[in-house]
Amino acid sequence: MKKEWSNKWVSSKQPRKQRKFRHRAPLHVRQKFVSAHLSEILRRRFGKRSLPLRKGDEVRVMRGKDNGFKGKVERIDLKRSKVFIEGLNVKKVDGSEVLKAVEPSNLLIVEPKMEDKRRQATIERARKAGRKEEKVEKEKKETTGIKERLKIRKGAKK
After folding, report:
1. pLDDT-based confidence at 43, cuts 50/70/90?
2. Long-range contacts formed by 77-81: CB under 8 A, 24+ apart
3. Fewest CB atoms less than 10 Å from the CB: which of 9, 89, 107, 109?
4. What is the dihedral of CA 101, 56, 126, 105, to 10 degrees?
5. What are residue 17's phi and psi, to 5 degrees?
6. Statement to judge: residues 41 and 94 lie in one domain
7. Are 82 and 97 in contact (CB under 8 A)?
8. Is the domain of 122 the same as that of 142?
9. Which helix (H) or strand (E) holds 119?
10. Number of structural domains in the chain
11. Which residues, 6 or more positions from 68, have their beta carbon under 8 angstroms from its beta carbon?
């Protein structure tokens, strides 16, 4: 493992390589590590379970001492994989207040910022894929029902 970083390490089962993958990942890959779940309404609307966080997203803290706090994402630190939320401050020893770092896994996206065209395209792709999956499931149910009816009819003829 002399390489600095390789995207092939993500498929490894070795915990050592998984840690190295995350620890040495470039910032464009770390952006995906800073993802949060979508609220149930958004999950149904977008056909996705989670999205990478962006500055301006409205989020709710789901775990910890600040559970239930709602605010906008002020800043994202990709190197530390932390999110800073507007209004969620901590007091320092000298009396000054700074934004509190929050783990992205403890957040729920309530209202995503949808001004980015690339983000809109990602959601649209997921929405289309979700519709295709629903159609396939419906077809499976219909064909299963037809097969069962045919079995019953064949059994009745004997």
Report:
1. very high
2. 77/101, 78/27, 78/30, 78/31, 78/34, 79/27, 79/30, 81/30, 81/33, 81/34
3. 89
4. 10
5. -75, -30
6. yes
7. no
8. yes
9. helix 117-157
10. 3
11. 60, 61
C-alpha torsion 109→80→117→130, nearest 10: -50
Residues 56-113: tens digit of each pLDDT:
999 999 999 999 999 999 999 999 999 999 999 999 999 999 999 999 999 999 999 9
- Distance between CA 8 and CA 29 in Å, rounded? 13
Are 39 and 107 contained in the same domain?
yes
Q: What is the DSSP letter of 63?
A: S
Residues composing the chain: 158
Which two structure tokens, joined as six digits, stand for 70? Answer: 């709602």
Looking up tokens 């969620």 gives 88
